[in-house]
Design brief:
By secondary structure, this protein is mainly alpha-helical. The protein has six helices and no strands.
């Protein structure tokens, strides 16, 4: 059974947690299913809005889905959340992604 299938089975069994939703979103994204992954990462953040890694993945998914303005807003919120949590690495990574999005296109 694949990772995605295992995670979906856990979800169907009632294990609806932010880390499970994050893991499912990440696996789907890596499998080229960004649109499907988006619903799971949004649910992860609804369950735990302080989950720094989920904010980072949410922004990456929006970029992959060609929604740069929404990704900018998500990264800005994610940076605030990560700063509040003291998650310096997540702050640094999201700041890099944010700078890339804001960089003027040639």
């Amino acid at each position: 059974m694949s990772l995605i299938a295992n995670l979906e089975k856990m979800l169907a069994a009632g294990a609806d947690t932010a880390p499970l939703r994050y893991g499912l979103a990440d696996a789907l994204f890596k499998n080229g299913e960004a649109k499907k992954a988006l619903a799971h990462i949004e649910r992860a953040l609804a369950i735990d809005p302080t989950y720094s890694a989920a904010w980072k993945l949410h922004g990456r998914l929006l970029v992959a889905l060609d929604q740069p303005d929404q990704a900018i807003a998500v990264y800005e919120q994610g940076i605030r959340v990560a700063e509040t949590r003291g998650d310096r690495q997540a702050v640094k990574e999201m700041e890099v992604f944010l700078r890339r999005l804001r960089k003027p296109k040639d």
